[in-house]
Amino acid sequence: MSNEEQHIGKSLAEILAIRKEKVQKIRDLGIEPFAYEFSKSHSCNEIIDHYEELKETVTVRIAGRLMTIRRMGKASFCHIQDQKTKLQIYFQENKIGNDNYELFKLLDIGDIIGAVGTVTKTRTGEITIFADELHLLSKNVRPIPVVKEKDGEVFDAFNNKEQRYRQRYLDLIVNPEVKDIFIMRSKIIQWCRDFLNERGFVEVETPTLQPIYGGASARPFKTFYNALNQDFFLRIADELYLKRLIIGGFEKVYEIAKNFRNEGIDRNHNPEFTALEYYQQYVDYNFLMDEVEAIFKMMAENIGKSSFAFAEFTIDFTQPFQRRSMFDLLKEYVGTDIYGMPEEQLRELCIERGFEVDKSVGYGKLIELLFDHYVEGKLIQPIFVTDYPKAISPLAKTSRDGKEDIVERFELYIAGQEFANAFSELNDPFDQRERLESQNHLREAGDEEAQTMDEDFVMAMEYGMPPTGGVGIGIDRLVMLFTNQRYIKDVILFPQLRS
Question: In CATH, what is the architecture of 3-144?
């Protein structure tokens, strides 16, 4: 709210009433308080960057939201803010005219205005528009939070996390630096597209609503399709549809898509998230490790840095990414070689270590439990964790080194978090059917995240699927990493919150 309203100490209802009266007073002046258009010639940033070319000779037209007002009788200063920055404007009654100055007196912080004038500097050296014209573009009728600054220190900051998420539009107005996160998000997505397009990939779209969900181990969101009189599910992954396209003859395909998993919310997980998945014929997970490393290093190069602060860590992208097998890491951090350990012995080990597990928790989940607890948080610098148990990887090919219970899969970990997941994709339809049937047995035993049988997908494989490599990369976590944001909600414009 404007300073005079704050000092009077009026209630919100009283301020809303005053603003409504101002709207009518503006109309009484013959001015429309909610304009149709305004032709801008420059952004605030362009005026600052090109001051020497523009000063005192070029008439400019700028627009933005009023963020400060200093009224001084027949002359006043204000600052407007556009997408990138703020700029000062100086209004004099004898330059803009009595009627326009009467309009200026009715303005409040939060109004959107346009100004026409010349660029110069004040005696204090601040670049300023000396206005010849004032245009009201949209009258603010609900007061915005006022953040005060003095000597570089911020007062009354709008920093309540939940309120910022619920009213992201206010967050962007009052904390304009937040826009930088989402501008970087847009760039990161575009860089992913550029990387793949340059290598001959085709971007495709697959269904969001699916009759059978699959491609990942997760609980789905369920809905009802009236036109088909049938239950459908929001996709948990686009993998099985993209592999159908590989079977159909596309050599390289990708999709940047929203996925939906009906699971918990925490610092690193959101039930609605964005992922890049891409698939390429005739390559395996070894090829994909090189390519995923190249994607992350490309991001760092485009940003112009070789190391990044993330949480309490400094992540170095100059070194080759490490490669370690999951069971080697488990042996190192658990202190016991658990490869080949029978399921019951593994369960006993978990119980001895203080985990609550019962008969419904199978071999794969026991391995994941130990890995998540003992290993994941230790993986700080970029590392590919390879060679996962087949029990938790039903879509990956069996290891070619003779270990029938291991598959060719990797996950990329940075700062204790997973960023990418990839397979040498299983292309044996007999093996695939057997594994999906095993997943069904896990579901019947109580594992709600076990995958479902998709007969159409298995039938598609029976027509012949070439050797294929596939990758999934979490876009939200990618943005978290390269913008140093600890919470996934800070890189999602409109995160879902409890009502």
Answer: Beta Barrel (2.40)
